[in-house]
Amino acid sequence: MSEEEVAGALRRLTQVTERSRERQAHRERIWEGMAGLTTTEAGVGGAVRVTIGTGGELTGLDLAESVRSLPSAMLSAQIMAAVRRAQATLARQIAALAGDPGAEPDPMVAGIVARYRSQFPEQPADTGPPPVPPPPTLTPPPRVAPRQPPPPPPRPPRPVYQDDEDFSQETFLRRQ
Question: Which of 57, 70, 103, 162 is the most exposed place for a label (fewest CB within 10 A)?
Answer without folding.
Answer: 162
